[in-house]
């Protein structure tokens, strides 16, 4: 496989790295996909958060988060389960 060198603005590279990390893909994979789509005249894909099903799921999670905020301590719940299972270790 051939290698090329390109120059991009620093902010562009930061955004590319953010997307690369979020999608668990390499920079090269993202560039290849973008160039392939550009050459084929296809529109770039939407972000996952633009998908109506994902938006609805995120909205539901936000509602749960707001409902339980300040009323439930996850660390305390884990301690309680651990103590009930293993007995108190002090």
Concise account of the structure shown:
This protein is mainly alpha-helical and 90 residues long.
What does this protein structure show overall?
- With 90 residues, this protein is mainly α.
- The protein folds into 2 domains: 10-45, no CATH class; 49-86, no CATH class.
- It contains 4 helices and no strands.
- The mean pLDDT is 86.
Outline the biggest β-sheet.
Answer: none
Rg estimate, integer Å: 22 Å
How many DSSP H or I helices? 4
Shape: elongated
Distance between the termini: 60 Å
Structural class: mainly alpha
Q: How many domains? A: 2
Number-wise, the strands total 0
Return the average pLDDT rounded to an integer: 86
- The helicity comes to 55-70%
Order of helices and strands: HHHH
Strand content: under 5%
**Model regions low in confidence, pLDDT < 50 over at least 5 residues:** none
Question: Topology of this protein?
Answer:
Layout: H1 10-23, H2 27-40, H3 52-68, H4 74-86
Which short descriptors sum up this protein?
mainly alpha, 64% helix
């Amino acid at each position: 496989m051939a290698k090329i060198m390109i120059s991009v603005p620093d902010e562009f590279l930061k955004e590319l790295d953010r997307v690369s990390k979020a999608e668990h893909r390499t920079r090269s994979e993202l560039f290849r996909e973008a160039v392939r789509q550009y050459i084929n005249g296809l529109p770039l894909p939407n972000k996952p958060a633009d998908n109506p099903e994902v938006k609805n799921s995120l909205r539901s999670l936000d509602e749960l988060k707001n409902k339980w905020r300040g009323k439930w301590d996850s660390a305390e719940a884990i301690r309680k389960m651990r103590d009930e299972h293993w007995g108190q270790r002090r």
